[in-house]
Amino acid sequence: SLPNSKRYHINNPVVGGSLRIWSHPIPATLPHKSSFSRKYGSVFTVYLGPKKVVVLAGYQAVKEALVGCAEEFGEREIFAVHGFLINSGIVWANGDSWKEMRRFALTSLKDFGMGKKASENKVIEECDKLTELFMKSDGETVDVAQLIQCATSNVISSLVYGNRFQYDDPEFISLVNRATRRLQLMVSPSVQMYNLFPRLCQWIPNRREFQNIDADVKKQNLMLFRQLKETLNPQMCRGLIDAFLMFCFLQDSGITDNHFHDENLLKSITNLFSAGTDTTATTVIFGLQLLAKNLEIQDQVREELNRVVRGRQVVVGDRKNLPFTNAVMHEIQRMVKIAPMGIPHRTAKDVTFHGYFIEKGTVVYPLLASVLLDETEWERPYSFYPAHFLDKDGNFVKRDAFLPFSAGRRVCLGEGLARMEVFIFLATILQRFSFSLPAGVSDLNLCAVSFKRYSCCSENHSDRPFSDIIYSLQLDKTNKPHKQTFVLFLLPKKRKVSSSTYQDNIPTSLHTE
Ligand code: HEM
Questions:
Q1: Does residue 4 form part of some domain?
Q2: Which of 24, 246, 367, 385 could form a disulfide with 380 if both were Cys (CB 3.0 to 4.6 A apart)?
Q3: Is 404 in the pocket of ligand 1 (CB under 6 A)?
Q4: Cβ atoms of 329 and 423 closer than 8 Å
């Protein structure tokens, strides 16, 4: 280690701070409530087992690194579980292959409408199907979270495969379940341990399960690719896979470079599916829960929607006329902190940053939660306060420290699509339904909600349905986690809000307006 880098070992001599940094709910608290950044400043080093990690905390440090030194901080750290030698796809790749795949995905998703009318239509179509299912469930309870998860998956499916699936299609259910389980495994403590000590931890069952899922996903996708290949029509590009297959065809004719191979297609599709499904679904569900807790804000959103949009379908173009709704959506995204620690970066070259020398190849964690909760940027960082995004006249204002999608070279590839989805899904659902907490429940531990993804990855959930795992929430009346879990359910139309129980869960309620 070089002389002028700050260097701190954290407690455990074997795994260092790895488990403390990664596990629930430390990611939320690391930058603010722990003493780390208060004590060591906005750039500090921790050792995760043998691995040196530079942590960036707060808006200034994160922005200066990811935007100001975009190239230096622009590589991705690849984990052992993804295979060190594999450099394919978009999320877990670097160099020319990453550049080519990212450019290709962005251009083709744009061509099929990302940020444009065509994808807006896909989101609206999915939203209609979703609310139709809510309505249809007259008399029955419905797991709203599961349906929302299917809806966001289907938006990605339409863009990549060129068609949506029925929610009860076994092919689709297994695609969604695998993506979800894969994510849970990836953040599980034992897989993190494997990433630190791959040779010693070969035996870890979660590592094997992760790689078995990868093998199944590969098999399933290769079958879907084969079907698409058989029906490929160069005159009619159905989605990203068709576009890729056409590039491969050009490659066979010697026209393009060699990054267009099956492995890159497979990994890119898996990346888009997993990066684009759970993130958006969790944001929408978290938003509904925040609004169930903040009824006045929910009513204000509905009032604005009724006044401006009236009964018709909300479209992205309405956003500029809906400043309060827009502010609420932004505040939901700020509060949910989907990727509290970002996705780990790595330095592409030696760099001197904030006076510290950081050598090429050092792992870097840009703590996005520390940006979204930065006490020097937000008036009320820990409260749900839509006024963060409103001026004194009620107009929408952008905020620099709003970086849920990160920034710089690795900024979320799906930002445009995700923003559109969150806006249309939430606004349409709120036009048609209202949400409230069950009788007798006055508060939800919303902190547990956003980090459930991290806490629910204990080793033995594989036999439970995915929505149960991902979206079951801990109720917290006393500020201590209860055993009871909470799932958002749909109650029959026009039925009074009640606190009916479901097994040992306490559902919140959703009823039609
Ligand atoms: C609310 C929803 C979403 C949030 C908050 C979110 C956030 C993020 C964040 C924080 C990163 C890491 C950026 C970095 O490394 O600095 C990321 C990367 C990525 N996201 Fe998203 N994302 C969302 C939705 C989506 C969607 C819908 C898609 C797909 C269309 C997507 C595709 C990706 C990809 C491919 C990457 C990797 C980019 C790269 O390494 O070059 N995301 N996202």
A1: no
A2: 385
A3: yes
A4: yes
Beta carbon of 63 within 6 Å of any ligand 1 atom:
no
Distance CA 220, CA 171 (A): 8
Rounded-to-integer distance, Cα 334 and Cα 283, Å: 10
Please tell me the distance from the alpha carbon of residue 293 to that of residue 241, in angstroms, as a whole number: 42
Q: Extract the tokens encoding 1.
A: 């280690």
Report whether 201 belongs to an annotated binding site: no
Cβ neighbours around 145 below 10 Å, total: 24
Q: Is the ipTM of this complex over 0.90?
A: yes
Residue type, 23: S
Return the structure tokens found at 279. Answer: 């993130």
Q: How far is the CA of 307 from the centre of ligand 1 (A)?
A: 34
Please work out whether the CB of residue 176 comes within 6 Å of at least one atom of ligand 1: no
Ligand 1 atom having least distance to the Cα of 102: 41
With respect to residue 504, please indicate whether it lies within any of the assigned structural domains.
no
- Residue numbers of the domain that contains 291: 18-492
Determine contact, residues 47/9, Cβ cutoff 8 Å.
yes
Answer yes or no: is pLDDT of 166 > 90.
yes
For ligand 1, atom 30, the nearest C-alpha belongs to: 414
CA of 151 to the centre of ligand 1 (A): 18
Q: What is the mean pLDDT of residues 407-412?
A: 96
* Coil/strand/helix, residue 241: helix
Does 170 map to a domain? yes
- Identity at 428, one-letter amino acid code: T
CATH code for position 65 = 1.10.630.10
Which pTM was predicted? 0.83
CB of 279 within 6 A of ligand 1: the answer is yes
Q: What is the domain count for the chain? A: 1
Local structure of residue 473 (DSSP, 8 states): E
Q: Which pLDDT score, from 0 to 100, does residue 82 have?
A: 79
Do residues 285 and 144 touch, judged by C-beta distance below 8 A? yes
Ligand 1 atom at minimum distance from 105 CA = 35
Of 129-143, 277-291, 337-351, least confident by mean pLDDT is: 129-143
Ligand 1 centroid to 392 CA: how many Å? 32
386 CB within 6 A, ligand 1:
no
Cα angle for residues 420, 426, 431 (degrees, 5° grid): 125
Cα angle: 180, vertex 227, 122; to 5 degrees? 55
